[in-house]
């Protein structure tokens, strides 16, 4: 996407429009006296793998942060969904 240059005053006058541009994937360079002061860019989504999730849950269980019933439910889910994914055929 594009890199947009805006003055501090422009950003302050319509922050909603600036954020919409960022949501669309643009970077906004905020300038004062033609000098960059800040860059606003889209945040990278936080992505976790299932193995990271299960490791985290095991640590929580070891620390007593989740109860045994819930841990058993998670383990059942893990068994069910620990199979390789076979995508459907779209004939």
Describe the overall structure.
The protein is of the alpha+beta class and 91 residues long. The chain has two domains: 3-40, YefM-like fold (3-Layer(aba) Sandwich); 50-80. It is built from four helices and three strands; from the N terminus they run E-H-H-E-E-H-H. It has helices at residues 8-13, 15-23, 50-62, 68-80, and strands at 3-7, 27-32, 35-40. A three-stranded mixed β-sheet has the order 1-2-3. A hairpin with a 2-residue loop joins strand 2 and strand 3 (35-40). Helix 3 (50-62) packs antiparallel against helix 4. The longest helix is centred in the middle third of the chain and has 13 residues, at 50-62. The two termini are 36 Å apart.
C-alpha termini separation: 36 Å
SSE order = EHHEEHH
Mean pLDDT: 85
Largest sheet: 3 strands, mixed
CATH topology heading of the largest domain: YefM-like fold
Strand content: 15-25%
Proportion of residues in helical segments: 40-55%
Oligomeric state of the chains present here: single chain
Would you count the extended β strands for me? 3
Looking at the structure, what is the overall shape? elongated
* CATH level 1 class label of the largest domain: Alpha Beta
> How many helices in DSSP terms?
4
In which order are the strands of the major sheet placed? 1-2-3
Unreliably modeled segments: none
Second CATH tier, the architecture of the largest domain? 3-Layer(aba) Sandwich
């Amino acid at each position: 996407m594009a890199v947009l240059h805006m003055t501090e005053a422009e950003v302050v006058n319509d922050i909603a429009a600036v954020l919409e541009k960022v949501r669309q994937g643009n970077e906004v360079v905020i300038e004062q006296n033609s000098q960059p002061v800040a860059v606003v860019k889209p945040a990278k989504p936080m992505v976790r793998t299932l193995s990271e999730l299960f490791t985290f849950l095991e640590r929580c269980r070891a620390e007593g942060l989740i109860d045994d019933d819930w841990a058993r439910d998670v383990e059942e889910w893990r068994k069910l969904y620990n199979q390789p994914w076979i995508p459907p055929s779209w004939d």
